[in-house]
Write a structure and sequence with these properties.
207 residues, Rossmann fold, 8 strands, 10 helices, binds adenosine-5'-diphosphate, binds zinc ion, five-stranded parallel beta sheet, three-stranded antiparallel beta sheet
């Protein structure tokens, strides 16, 4: 099954995509994680992407399109994959439709206050990209799964968050209509807590 998780930054795409990835035994493909890995590795692509990411802007379409096109050719994607954070623009969605078939698009929806709280309290493991929220960390500063340092992403600071939400509205929200018109959109309201929300995601997908 080839799936897309759509929704604003901080709505929980990564969290639910990871859980679903385990359940279905297909990979979660996060373009944000891939770009951050390139930055950490100091590749030319990473250095270029960093300028955009730190500002809260989108990296150029062709960069992420090429990345995803190559990634889904890998053997672990043979049974399907979950795209998390891609596509984010109409040109990305059009390009995607030319090289693969999508079965469903899960559109996660939450109030802006919920999203702001998720983002501003988010901490990320520097080493394995696991995400946490300060309300559940109880002061811990290390990753529970690998022991890596937890960091507050530069783009999770309040001014950049506001800019990312604006970028989402202008550039990504049109994809809701794009995929609704294609008959692929499944809307899920995620405001009840991770476990209950995940059940709603499964229900929407009839899993
Ligand atoms: P979030 O879901 O919290 O916004 P991501 O990790 O998905 O975070 O993305 C972080 C940043 O990486 C984005 O703000 C953007 O700069 C870049 N990025 C990730 N995916 C894409 C994409 N599909 N197109 C353009 N830029 C992207
Ligand atoms: Zn970790």
């Amino acid at each position: 099954m080839n799936l897309i998780f759509l929704g604003p930054p901080g709505v929980g795409k990564g969290t639910h995509a990871k859980q679903l990835s385990k359940l279905l035994d297909i990979p979660q493909i996060s373009t944000g994680d891939m770009l951050r890995a390139s930055i950490k590795a100091g590749t030319p692509l990473g250095m270029k992407a960093k300028e955009f990411i730190d500002k809260g802007a989108l990296v150029p379409d062709q960069v992420v399109i090429d990345m995803v096109k190559e990634r889904i050719k890998e053997v672990d994607c043979a049974k399907g994959f979950i795209l998390d954070g891609f596509p984010r623009t109409v040109p990305q969605a059009q390009a995607l439709s030319e090289f693969t078939k999508i079965d469903a698009v899960v559109d996660l929806v939450a109030r802006e206050s919920v999203i702001m709280a998720n983002l501003s309290g988010r901490r990320v493991c520097r080493d394995c990209a696991a995400t946490y929220h300060i309300r559940r960390l109880n002061g811990a500063t290390k990753c529970a799964s690998c022991g890596g340092d937890l960091i507050h992403r530069v783009d999770d600071q309040i001014d950049t968050i506001k800019h990312r939400l604006e970028v989402y509205r202008v550039q990504t929200e049109p994809l809701i209509t794009f995929y609704r018109d294609a008959g692929l959109l499944l809307e899920v309201v995620v405001e009840s807590g991770i476990d209950e929300d995940f059940l709603l995601v499964r229900k929407a997908l009839e899993l």
